[in-house]
Structures are given as C-alpha cells and as structure tokens.
Amino acid sequence: PSASVTAPPLRTGGRALGVLQVPFRAFLEADADADAGEGAVEDWMSPGDVEARLMESLGWLLLAQGGEVVPSSATSFVPAELRSLLDDVLPQVAEANDLDVAELREEVASSWAAYLEFLGETDSWRGDVEDLADCLDVVAADAADEAGAYVLDGLAAAVAGLTLEEELAALAAVPAARVGTGDTAPDDTVPADATDEERRAAGRAALTRWIREQVAGEDHEARGALGGLSALASAVLGSPLTTGELRRTVAGAGQEESLPAALDLVGRLAAGGVLSATEPWTAPAGLGPAIAAAVRELFDDDPQPDDPQPDDPPA
C-alpha cells in the first residue's frame, strides 16, 4: 500500500522517532528476512511501508496534541493516546485526504503494533510495562490480520519440536481426543491396526473439533471467543493468562462485556483437560498441535493451501 505521506507530519514523526529510526528499520528488515527464510507468506506491508506509516501517523498524533516535539522522544505512550489517534485523528485525516478510513486504520494499527513490539523487545520502552501491554491491545484490535499472523507463526514455532510419543501421551489423557476402534461415529474411529501416526492424526482432529465446538458452538457462547482463543494461544506460546490479563485483553479489544462468557469458556476448556484448572491457565505441551490447529481454523476461515492441517497425513 502507498504511504500517501505529506511532509509536515512525516517530519514531525521522524523528529520524535529520532535515533530510533535506524534500529527500527533494521528490526523490520530482520523480521521480514526471518519470515522469508521460514517460507512464510510475504507481509502485506513492506518494512518501508511500515516505517513511513508509523512516522506519518506519529506526526498526526503529535500535531493534534500540540506542543513542542522533543527529538527521540517516541519511547512511551498511554492507551488513551492511541485510542485518540485511531478514533479521532484518523477519520479527520482520511476525510481531508480522500482516503479509505478502514484501510488507513488497519495500516496505522499494524505499523504501531510493529513499533511497540520493537520498543519492548529492544528495551527501548520508557513507560510503565502495563501501558505497553495495554497499548498493544489497543492497536491489535484493529490490526487483526497482522496480529493474527504473528500469533499463528508463533504457534507453529512453539509446537515444532514435539515428538510423536509426547503428543500421543497428551492426547490419550484428554477424553475429547480419544478415538475408538469399534462402531462409534466415523470421525472418531481408527482401524484396529492403526499406526501411531494415524492415531495421532485422529486424536488431533477429534480434539481440534471439540475445541472449535466449545469456542463457537453456540451464538451466545461465541461472545467469549476472543478471550478463549487468547487463553489457548497464550498457553501454547508459554505466556499463560490470568483472569486479570484476560480482562485487559478483552477490554483492549472493546469487548469488556464478553469477559463472563470468556471465563465460562475457559472453564469448559479446563474441565475438558485442555487448560489447567488453576491460574495462570497452562496447557499440556503435547496438546499444542491440536490447540494450534483449532486456533488457526477459528482465526482464519480461509487457510492457505500450503498450511498443514491437523488431520494431514504425516510427511
């Protein structure tokens, strides 16, 4: 996408970015190179697009706030500032420049998500740690596709090292993943002489299906889908959530009212053995591939043809 920049906001944002501009660009390029090396789908915004959109939108924000711009000062923000940028400033910019506000909002949110991630990973953030997490929540709500790609890539990496034995043992301990060899439903059976690989594929498929049913099986329960998916993904990624963190996650997406439904969903997932009964909500490592498959299917209704599916035969 074109950056469609104008000089004053771009210069203002560039001044606030200051000495961080070069390392931020290097961070973006290294991330793009790593994705290319892993065969990931090419990002919809290039490093140059992200850098330009970040500087320009930072300029819009600072010009809207007024006051003097301090060089190299873009190292801390509060959630209210980013909500103001997305909700108040961007519609005015879009109208004045005849831009599509939804597309602009997604580009800006995605660029800020990358910049906030950069500030956190490089220890360049100078504000409260909780503000960084809350700012990420604000922009992630509007950069869903980009944030989703990061989550799905992270899940794939997190489960890559599991052995067949580890996964079979974990699946055998969860009732929803158990499959029979008799005259039960066809989707839940395997031949009596099935190989371990076939039993693993069937167990994955059964558990993936069960998770999907818990998350989106009923319209009124689907209100907790965001919280449930966040809890599942965080458990596999090694950063399990607590009730407080789940509350911040749904609130950051403007879904505060969904917290009771999300907690109810987490409770059902825990009762089924997928998540732990106590906080923070962890998950058995061996269930990672099935959980990742369920999250992928619920996150992305149109998976890429090259994406491995939970019931694919092993290579």
The gross shape turns out to be elongated
Order of helices and strands: HHHHHHHHHHHHH
- Helix count equals 13
| Beta-strand residue fraction | under 5%
Describe this structure in words.
This protein is mainly alpha-helical and 315 residues long. The chain contains 13 helices and no strands. α6 crosses α11.
Give the SSE map.
Layout (H helix, E strand, L loop, with lengths): L6 H11 L3 H17 L9 H19 L13 H19 L3 H21 L7 H12 L3 H15 L5 H9 L23 H21 L8 H12 L6 H10 L6 H13 L16 H12 L16
Helix pairs in contact: 1-3, 2-3, 3-4, 3-5, 4-5, 4-6, 5-6, 6-11, 7-13, 8-9, 9-13, 10-11, 10-12, 10-13
Task: Give the tags.
single chain; 315 residues; mainly alpha; disordered N terminus; disordered C terminus
Short note summarizing the structure:
With 315 residues, the protein is mainly α. It has 13 helices and no strands.
